[in-house]
Write a structure and sequence with these properties.
- This protein has about 550 residues and is of the alpha/beta class.
- Among the domains are: about 1-135, RRM (RNA recognition motif) domain (Alpha-Beta Plaits); about 175-265, Nucleotidyltransferase, domain 5, CATH 3.30.420.
- About 30% of the residues lie in helices and about 20% in strands.
- The strands form three sheets. A 14-stranded parallel β-sheet has the order 7-8-9-10-11-12-13-14-15-16-17-18-19-20. It has a four-stranded antiparallel β-sheet with strand order 4-5-3-6, covered by helices on one side.
- A hairpin with a 4-residue loop joins strand 1 (about 1-5) and strand 2 (about 10-15).
- Helix 12 (about 400-410) packs parallel to helix 13 (about 435-445).
- The longest helix is centred in the first third of the chain and has 16 residues, at about 80-95.
- The model is unreliable at about 1-20, about 120-130, about 345-350, about 365-370 and about 425-430 (pLDDT under 50).
Length: about 550
């Protein structure tokens, strides 16, 4: 804001606005005079630098306060910012219009007493009145900023110095997650390169979580758009980054992934998904501080077979690493607590027990192309790991369920089991359920006294098998059923409650049953106290 002088008097206009015939002076110095009207209760002796400072410093930083010579009741207050002078003058005018008692009379000091700052004259038609938003204090402005998205906040930072200062001091440092999702459609990116660059210049130093998806078509590949995106990320993301989820089909092509080396060195979690890649990638060198790595790219990973300082979780979703290298990787890192891999490692997952002794959780994904499928024999090598607390098996075949369940029954410390049958099994009718598998499921409940959570996805059940499993799984706290083939009804819920009444003696010993939302629509008894005391039904 600026004060300018014309034939009418002092006027307030926005910066870089003035009449053709005048150059205006930026006002930072105000003339303050004690109000000696009869209504004033302040004696002349009380007019001092301390009193003026107490009244003025709430409007902004003060550069100096000067008591005028031979003037007992007058002084000059010079602010660091002209906006502070504007705020103090505006408050004075507002109080005057409201007829409030005022200790001082305030007006801009004479032009020759102002700190020099001239501007070039601009056309008269560009004269604009100050926006009322600048009358708001900083707390109000910050509250308004809370309702804007990141892109709008970046635009607001270019409006004026006040907005820029507030945003960089209070708003941008609070933004910790940054997301870029661009897929397949040219020229219509969710976040184009130029926009991403502008946003990262403001929030890049503060973000801790990065989600980057850039699966583009042949036009972007030809013009190497991906490389430019990666370069901007590496240039602007700061040292606070800790987690990155990256999905980019061509990130490994032409060694593009090396562009992100400045980001990778600070990561604790990396999830990478890309197309197949014939050359090796040394994630250990690029990401020395990783705690969790999830690789969904077909690379041999020979460069990763070495001791890691802090690695705890290893997930090899789609990799050409061979069994010997995986065994050596596990042996060199006894601190591993979680490992996830497919069963297509040379056609089997028969890993030596000694190399898996430190694992607390194991997740295995089965494949059904070329390499057979997961069965009880393949996971038998894990049965001696009695300290295992969690096992998740994915894409299982229906004819292998009996062997899988019988093998899991040999464990004694399992607390969580997740079983997922392959997609073809979802269309199997309930009448075609293998009774041997159901008997094995009940046997699993009797052999697992510590089992607290069971998740079944596309595993077909009967009412009898469900009741018997709940009857013997006395420590079960959560049961999740997806595509089980059961008709969920009020009668089924009541039957489950009857079973629970006999094996749940503790007041807080409640079983949580998770179902799809549509299965809950016709259930009327789940909210009654007699049911919720033993069973809580929740949507997945």
């Amino acid at each position: 804001m600026r004060f300018i002088w014309d034939d009418i008097g002092w006027k307030l206009v926005s910066h870089k606005r003035a009449y053709d015939e005048n150059q205006f002076v930026v006002v930072r110095k105000l003339h303050v005079k004690l109000n000696t009207d009869s209504d004033s209760t302040l004696p002349i002796q009380g007019f001092s630098v301390d009193l003026i400072r107490q009244h003025s410093e709430r409007f902004g930083n003060i550069e100096s306060i000067e008591m005028l010579p031979n003037k007992e009741t007058e002084a000059h207050v010079t602010f660091v910012s002209d906006r502070s002078a504007y705020s103090m003058q505006s408050q004075h005018e507002f109080d005057k219009e409201a007829r409030r008692k005022q200790q001082f009379q305030i007006q801009p000091a004479d032009t020759w007493e102002q700190p020099r700052e001239n501007t070039n004259p601009l056309p008269k038609e560009d004269l604009e009145q100050t926006s009322e938003i600048f009358m708001l204090n900083e707390d109000c402005l910050l509250h308004l900023f809370m309702f804007l998205d990141v892109g709008s906040l970046v635009d607001m930072a270019d409006v004026c110095k006040l907005f820029n200062r507030l945003l960089h001091r209070y708003c941008f440092p609070r933004i910790r997650k940054f997301e870029v999702i661009n897929s397949y459609i040219p020229y219509t990116f969710f976040m184009p390169l130029a926009k991403m660059h502008r946003v990262l210049r403001c929030v890049g130093p503060y973000i801790t979580d990065l989600i980057f998806e850039c699966n583009v078509d042949e036009w972007e590949i030809k013009h190497d758009v991906v490389t430019r995106f990666l370069e901007v990320l590496a240039e602007n993301v700061g040292t606070n980054i800790r987690r990155a989820w990256i999905s980019c089909r061509t990130i490994c092509k032409n060694d593009r992934i090396s562009k992100l080396a400045p980001i990778f060195r600070h990561l604790e979690l990396l999830q990478l998904k890309a197309n197949n890649y014939t050359f090796d990638i040394d994630f250990h060198t690029m990401c020395p501080n990783l705690v969790d790595i999830q690789v969904d790219v077909n690379v041999p990973m020979r460069g990763c077979v070495k001791p890691w300082k802090s690695l705890r979780r290893l997930a090899i979703i789609n990799s050409s690493i061979n069994t010997a290298d995986l065994i050596k990787l596990i042996a060199l890192n006894p601190q591993l607590t979680h490992i996830e891999f497919k069963d297509d490692l040379n056609g089997n997952i028969s890993l030596p027990i000694s190399n898996l002794r430190m694992l607390e959780n194991v997740q295995i994904a089965s494949t059904h192309y070329n390499h057979g499928h997961l069965n009880g024999f393949k996971i038998a090598c894990l049965s001696r790991l009695q300290h295992l607390t969690e096992i998740s098996l994915f894409r299982l075949r229906r004819d292998s369920m009996e062997g899988i369940l019988d093998c899991l029954a040999t464990f004694v410390g399992l607390r969580k089991i997740c079983l997922h049958q392959e997609e073809e099994a979802e269309r199997v009718a309930v009448s075609a359920v293998d009774p041997r598998s159901l008997r094995s499921l009940v046997k699993l409940a009797t052999k697992q006294p510590k089992l607290e959570e069971l998740k079944l996805d596309s595993v077909k059940l009967t009412r009898t098998a469900l009741m018997e499993f709940v009857r013997y799984a006395i420590q079960l706290k959560k049961l999740q059923l997806k595509w089980s083939g059961l008709m969920i009804s009020d009668q089924l819920i009541l039957n489950l409650v009857d079973v629970l009444k006999f094996n749940r003696s503790e007041p807080n010993d409640v079983l949580v049953l998770e179902l799809y939302s549509y299965q809950l629509e016709n259930l009327n008894v789940i909210k009654t106290q007699s049911v919720s005391r033993y069973l809580q039904v929740k949507p997945i």
